[in-house]
Design a protein that fits this description.
CATH architecture of the largest domain: 3-Layer(aba) Sandwich
Radius of gyration: 21 Å
Number of strands: 15
Oligomer: single chain
CATH topology of the largest domain: Cytidine Deaminase, domain 2
CATH class of the largest domain: Alpha Beta
Order of helices and strands: EHEHEHEHEHEHHHEHEHEEHEEHEEHE
Number of domains: 3
Largest sheet: 6 strands, mixed
Helix content: 25-40%
Strand order of the largest sheet: 8-15-13-11-9-10
CATH superfamily of the largest domain: LpxI C-terminal catalytic domain
Strand content: 15-25%
Distance between the termini: 44 Å
Number of helices: 13
Length: about 325
């Protein structure tokens, strides 16, 4: 049963005040079915559907134009913060890595610094800043859990309760805790969808028929590894798997695998089957190609429409200069 309350009045078209990129992403996520078609109203509710109540909260959070950014390492947090600012969002950053903290201050209202395991401090800060929605973006190396975890009592208790601590499990722990505090975690693509790789060969050089065979084989194996939440990347040559990414990350897997080849190794990076776009969308950049070049990789194959590319123009220039192949399949 759908009930329409007349107060506050229903806006005729909230699509007209949402940033276009956000509007497109919401429609793709099927979040506007009961909202934008009818004209969004925060009190439009389906009383028999908890899912629709969650969607309503999601939209209310987006319309608040306040964003929490949980920022790891790399360029992606900076690009997301800049995009959010350009769309009119006021962003509060929780910085988990020191390398990009200074750049974040250019686009964020405030930048706080915490360790990845300081969950209570992060939650308290988000509440203090009246943040109802956050985006996770950037690399946070899981090896920190082995070396210098800086776990508060809340994080320690949650981790002890889990049988496994693979990448997805760790992220689901954090997401569940935030949702229990009425803080929504957003799809990573909402603000930086333009960074997703389109299908096709990006470099001037095309893969050979043998390299295409290795790409297809590597794609299948990488998907299987993703399915069991081991990693997203493999290195392959002559129909042989040289390396599978695990906790060490893509760069070190590339080093390990390409060293075993003869200078013509193929690196394949894919999304996980049923990828949760709230976290861990595969990402490549100029450093990926530089790492490959240094250790003997020739072909980089990524999954089209599922992989972020940063420094795309620089990547293509580097690939062409060194006769490397970059392809989105």
């Amino acid at each position: 049963m759908i009930q329409l309350h007349t107060s506050p009045p229903c806006h005729p078209s909230y699509a007209s005040i949402l940033p276009f990129q956000i509007y497109k992403s919401i429609t793709k996520l099927n979040l506007f079915k009961k909202y934008f078609i009818l004209g969004y109203n925060p009190v439009y509710t389906d009383l028999n559907s908890s899912w629709n109540q969650r969607k309503r909260k999601y939209l209310e959070a987006i319309l608040s134009k306040r964003l929490g950014l949980i920022a790891g390492d790399g360029e992606l947090p900076i690009k997301l913060a800049r995009s959010a600012k350009n769309m009119g969002f006021s962003t509060i950053a929780i910085s988990l890595a020191p390398c990009n903290r200074k750049q974040l201050t250019r686009y964020c209202e405030k930048v706080y610094s915490f360790g990845p395991g300081e969950i209570q401090k992060i939650v308290d800060t988000l509440h203090k800043e009246n943040i109802k929605q956050v985006s996770f973006i950037g690399k946070v190396h899981k090896g920190l859990l082995l070396r210098n975890p800086r776990l508060d009592s809340r994080a320690f208790k949650l981790i002890k309760q889990r049988k496994r601590l693979n990448d997805d499990q760790v992220m689901f722990i954090v997401i569940e805790e935030l949702e229990s505090e009425n803080i929504n975690v957003l799809d990573q693509t909402l603000f930086i969808k333009d960074l997703l790789a389109e299908k096709g060969v990006l470099s001037n050089l095309n893969p050979t028929s043998d390299e295409c065979i290795d790409i297809e084989y590597g794609f299948q194996i990488a998907k299987q590894m993703g399915k069991i939440d081991i990693g997203q990347s493999v290195v392959v040559q002559n129909k042989m798997i040289l390396a599978v990414e695990a906790i060490e990350g893509t760069d070190r897997a590339i080093q390990r695998g390409c060293r075993l080849g003869n200078g013509n190794a193929v690196v394949v990076k894919v999304s996980k089957p049923n990828q949760d776009n709230r976290f861990d969308i595969p990402t490549v950049g100029l450093n990926t190609l530089k790492n490959m070049k240094k250790f003997g990789g020739k072909v980089l194959a990524i999954e089209a429409n599922e992989t972020f590319i940063i420094e795309k123009n620089e990547m293509i220039e580097f690939a062409d200069k060194h006769k490397m192949v970059v392809v989105a399949v």
